[in-house]
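Pipeline run #58 for the internal structure catalog. This entry was flagged by the ingest filter as a single-chain record with no existing model, so it goes straight to prediction. Upstream metadata was stripped on purpose; only the residue string is passed forward. Reviewer on rotation: M.T. Logging verbosity set to normal.
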Amino acid sequence: MTSLEEIVEETLESMIQLQRQKVLKVARAINPRVTPEDIRNPQDLPDLYEDPGFNYEDGILTGYLSVQMSLRAKLREPLNQSP
């Protein structure tokens, strides 16, 4: 049986991969020579860094990654830990 944690992790990972593809597609529409590594450091490419469409899609990706990290951290906490 698949646990809820596994379902959430698989779902988030799928969303992240799809968004990475979308960010790369948007980036390559701006600059066809962009690599997957380039989108990790868009500040090095002014044409990407200044594009609102790219920044929007990259922001969505950043949000997904933040949710994934937060959930992983939360799931590692002891169950009876008080805030």
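catalog note: The chain has three helices and no strands.
catalog note: The two ends are 31 Å apart (CA to CA).
status: ready for reviewer M.T.
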